[in-house]
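The records we work with from here on pair a chain with its fold. These numbers are not coordinates but entries in a learned vocabulary of local backbone shapes. To see the layout at work, look at the sequence and tokens printed below.
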Amino acid sequence: MSRSPLIARTVPALRRAVDNLRKRKAMIALVPTMGALHDGHVSLVRLAKRRASRVVVSIFVNPTQFAPTEDLGAYPRTWKADIAKLAAEDVDIVWHPGVEAMYPEGFATRIVPEGPAVAGLEDRFRPHFFGGVATVVGKLFTQCRPDVAIFGEKDFQQLRVVTRMARDLDLGVKIIGSRTVRERDGLAMSSRNVYLSPEERRIAPTLYRVMKESAVRIRAGDAIAAAMAGGAEMIEAAGFVLDYFEVRHAETLAPVTSRKDGPLRILVAARLGSTRLIDNIAV
């Protein structure tokens, strides 16, 4: 029988709850989320349960990673459904702070990541984004003090940024990436998929299909530039406005020109109507 998780809304309440787990010698996993939970998030929670004895899930729509033109106000919020999902997974603690708890009056400190955060992918189109992510994730790590933290591979550049930050700042948190969960037609699960119209939803899996076809071409020996140019044409012909469609080194996100340059990752970001989709696969 599932039990309701403890819900903490202030840092002192969270600290007391985490301290109680620590007294029992618990290993703690953190799953950071912005809510609007779907099966992809549930897969992160299940991986967390395999890697630790206790699980904390944070739900916080972080304003510092949204630009003024982006969808902070419209971002889906499904609190009751989220808690039901987490209760069904026997999550121990839900950390649900308000903006005033995360960024109290006078807050004046930011983390400014470099390395994979300035790889010329998401940062080219959302220059504010990784500073906001790094700052809020750094706070989550110091608030929750987890042994491990679980992040999805769908946000691949974010995964690399957070991994680098945890290592560089000696935060004592092991970052674990979890593979992307997809719909039956290949579309990566995302809270923003609800914005797609029926026709856009039909077109959206094109991104995954083209990535797979491009990866096959690269593995077969085609030049990377030719394979990616052909894929970009197919994506745009389907009706997307393409931000980027690139192959990068899977660890550093540095540009590559050959299969010999190391483990490779294809990354894509494109707009379909008013919805921006991102995805990636290993080559």
Q: What stands out?
A: The chain has a mean pLDDT of 96.
